[in-house]
Amino acid sequence: MDAWLVWLLLGLLLGAVEVFTVTAALGILGGAALLTAGAAGVGLPLPAQFVVFAVVSVLGLLLVRPLARGHLLKPQSARFGVDALVGESGYVLREVTRHDGRVRIAGEEWTARPFDDSLAIPEGTTVEVLRISGSTAFVYPGSGSWKLH
What we know:
- This protein is an alpha+beta fold.
- The protein has 2 domains: 3-73, no CATH class; 81-148, CATH 2.40.50.140.
- The protein contains 3 helices and 7 strands, in the order H-H-H-E-E-E-E-E-E-E.
- It has helices at 3-21, 25-41, 46-73, and strands spanning 89-94, 102-105, 108-114, 119-120, 126-133, 136-143, 147-148.
- The strands form 2 sheets. The protein has a 5-stranded mixed barrel. The protein has a two-stranded antiparallel ribbon with strand order 4-7.
- The longest helix has 28 residues, at 46-73.
- The N and C termini lie far apart (80 Å).
């Protein structure tokens, strides 16, 4: 089997494994193998192919991998779905107790329970959403009156 084909297969295999590991290291080694396949394809002798693979691998791991890891480990900047409602204000439509309640959050009506079970939040109170579980918003009075239940 020709050396360029071996390098090509190695590069493709490393790239495929990288998809499942998401470490960036195997992808860089796969890229180095693909570049070495090109070098082998133009007739570079085997010892020079190993030098090309080693140099490209080391440079890639030292220069590219830290950048790739930074992007992979970056925290999610935007919240989506119900997570985006946490921290929003709501308006109590029907008194919120540990057994019942309705609030309007971002224009939608939600089932609600007090974050603190000992509270009863009266109708008309502005609340803050502290957690969403399923279709129920757990809220706490923002401003307005509230009483112990």
